Amino acid sequence: MIIGESRIWKTCLINQFLNSVLLLCYIKTRKDLSIKELKINDNTLNFEIWDILGIGLFRTVNKIFLKTTLITLLVHDLTDQHSFNQLNYWINEIKDLNNNNIILGIASNKIDLFEKK
Known about the structure:
Structural class: alpha/beta
Distance between the termini: 29 Å
Strand content: 25-35%
Radius of gyration: 14 Å
Number of strands: 5
Number of helices: 5
CATH superfamily: P-loop containing nucleotide triphosphate hydrolases
Largest sheet: 3 strands, parallel
Shape: globular
Strand order of the largest sheet: 1-4-5
Helix content: 25-40%
CATH topology: Rossmann fold
Order of helices and strands: EHEEHEHHEH
């Protein structure tokens, strides 16, 4: 699962991973499922990637997905301090809802724009 505040270009990160194409634009998402198969040596990994909306209206729906996720990538925008501050909110939501031994990662997005700031 990819999660974070709205307007931080999570969908653009997913598109780059899936299609090796970098889109430098904001894409509005409600929730979207993408599937990618990777072969590493003799192993095949299947990724089901849920891109879910970060705004408050959808946070109740997001809880359904957070209960069952095994791997979550938390994304924040380097040009938006609020998105970084909200990482604690997302981490606490996952801890409260998910009893699995979940793998969490954090990705900082828009580094190219941060350097210009």
